[in-house]
Amino acid sequence: MSRRTTPLQDAINHILARRDKNSMLEIKFINSVKGRGIFTLANFKQGDFVVEYRGELIDATEAEHRRNLYPSACSVFMFDFIWKQKTLCIDGALEDGSFGRLVNDEHRTPNCRMKLIEAEGKPHLCLFALKEIAAGSEITYDYGGKEWPWRKKVGHLKKNFPYELL
């Protein structure tokens, strides 16, 4: 009888391997407004680790510098958060083939929640299922805030995002 890996251990295993759940997730083009999204190829249970939001870990000063250099379309891939009383940022603007950067915003009925995980002394942002997610579903989470351009009548900072520290 094999023991099931806990969702936290599953997340850490994928973080350390720097890989996504390629057999359980896929990238699909949605439309010209929304762009691409991540869809499930398998079912996820409530609480399961789904995907890491990967990118380069940078400090707040470097994040602000890059925001001034990047076109506005790239700044939506920058995720600010607080870790050990310091503002940091995961810069996911680089098209690196990872899935987490392509998960879309859904503030009304998201199926995932972002959690902050420490692995090998560094912070990592990971999405976990809020409820059971059926195969074929789009993975979504609430980006937080009300200033996103697509939320006006339907900012770039995600530091007010309600993530959970594990």
Automatic annotation (TrEMBL):
One of its GO terms (molecular function) is histone H4K20 methyltransferase activity. It comes from the Eukaryota. GO terms for cellular component: nucleus; polytene chromosome. InterPro entries: KMT5A, SET_dom, SET_dom_sf. Residues 23-144 form the SET domain. GO terms for biological process: regulation of DNA damage response, signal transduction by p53 class mediator; regulation of transcription by RNA polymerase II. PROSITE patterns: SET (PS50280). This is SET domain-containing protein. It comes from Astatotilapia calliptera (Eastern happy).
